[in-house]
Amino acid sequence: MTLPLETVRPGQLRLLVLTPDYADFLWLNALLAGDVEISADATWCPDLVDCDDLIRNASFDLIVWDCVFHGGSEASFLQYLAVASNEKPVLALSAELPGERAPELLASGAADYLSRQNLDHWNFRRAVKCLWYRGQLSESAHGQLGREVATGFINRDLFFDRLQQALLRAERAGHRLALLHLNIDDFRSINESFGYQKSDQLMMKLAERLRHSLRRVDSLMRIGGDELAIIVEKVEDSLDITQIIRKVVSALDEPVTIDGQTVVVSVSLGVATYPEAGDSAENLLRRANRAMFEAKRDPGTSYRFYDRQLHISAGYQLRLEADLRNALRGKELELYYQPRIDLATEEVRGVECLLRWNHPERGLVGPDEFIPVAERSGLIVPIGYWVIEQACKRLQESAELGFPGLVFAVNLSFRQFHDRKMTETIFRIIFNANVDTSLLELELTESAMMHDPEYAQRCLRELNQLGISFALDDFGTGFSSLSNLQHLPISLVKIDKSFVQELGNSADAEHIIRAIISLAHSLQISVVAEGVETEGQLEFLRQQHCDEIQGYYYARPMPWADLVQFLNKRGEAACLQQ
């Protein structure tokens, strides 16, 4: 339930009041009434669900937050408000005196704090007006800064002032900060080819691209003829920095058109972080500059970190991601196949398709190393479709080789459900492959369903209508397995190998496996046990009437040629037994 007081007029203060008590909302609204300098339009929100909808879909200048209103953690809720509202100021209210609560809440992201004990119309109006005017000045400065960059304005004093202010904010809040120093490679040649005016236009176009790829809280300035600087505030870890660099590199990748001619530029990028690389504006810029010159040793657009540890962690992530992009184009990716054995007949019922990467320098890179990188960068989406394409080709080939009923199981990443054309793309792949869809099985984990459960369920129903079946992977390790089984078109569950490997050592593992098999069979769902390695594990699962097993006891994951050989040998053995 939300109660807007009136239609917003130009110049009005738009206020969102987060409090569970309507009487408090009326009280706060009354404190603002009668102020000749403020015309406030206040909206009351007592509910967390409405809060998310309002913040993401409406526009507010200021949030007044009663500290009892949160989803379990005040600090986490403040972080959520900052992200969802695009850094709108939050005025926190609570019963405690400022000395007791203010330092903690301000450090967590609140812009100001007021105690109910001494709250009157003067204190409240003063705080509200102060934050509102500060926000207007910030927006004005941000817009002015953008115009200055776009018009080629260079002011190093203004840049140092902004960097110093950002450092003070980082120190007060206990946040990290990163400074990115960008230099256009071989800018002299561009000047000579196009002249200074056209070269300046190129810088403006690059700056405009970068500005659109950055967060509102980040600052972009031109600090030299061929130099740009980006101040990245509120950095959590090296992953945050890699995401910013990824956006920057992506923005600079596209050619620029000047005077009808296409120009490809490369940029050297140096990164220095607070507090690791320094605690003053001068030190930070000097060290980012040094890292930038190190980056110039590498061909093309490249980056270096001043801090060694960050260079190792964040730099390695980005290099791996760049290599992975090339791997998808350069046919370095390969599928391995692990057989699934029917326990009743000991025949190969199907295979799980597992991704491997043959890196030209590192050799075979394990999925535990590159799959997280693929998921964070979004590369897992095109890679996932490539895996389905390859599985469909092998499915066709297996029928031609005399294994017509072999099921091919493919893992579906949670990121796949972020693609709103997932169903359409998978349909096109299987239509072009012309395969028996009943032999294609998609494995998903519970995390795949968490981003947008309604959309995920709709996708699964649509794909299920095409004949595709679904398996729930890592069953027993999540929190909502039972509810998922009730609402999803799941035909198979896979018992996580962590339970199987505890067989013989843990009575709990035995009880859990018995319960999973019993539950699944009562719902007419088949069960596969993963990670089976010993005769004892196999015998226990056989006694519990597990349907299929998968693990080193029978076969490790193997390339296609080895799988064909494995299938032929098992076929020959079956013939000899007859």
TrEMBL record:
Its EC number is 3.1.4.52. GO terms for molecular function: cyclic-guanylate-specific phosphodiesterase activity. SMART domains: EAL, GGDEF. Residues 317-571 form the EAL domain. The keyword Metal-binding does not apply. InterPro entries: CheY-like_superfamily (IPR011006), Cyclic-di-GMP_PDE-like (IPR050706), EAL_dom (IPR001633), EAL_sf (IPR035919), GGDEF_dom (IPR000160), Nucleotide_cyclase (IPR029787), Rev_trsase/Diguanyl_cyclase (IPR043128). CDD domains: EAL, GGDEF. Coiled coil: none annotated. The keyword Oxidoreductase does not apply. It holds the Pfam family EAL. It is an enzyme of class 3 (hydrolase). It comes from the Bacteria. Keywords: c-di-GMP. Residues 175-308 form the GGDEF domain. This is cyclic-guanylate-specific phosphodiesterase. It comes from Marinobacter manganoxydans MnI7-9.
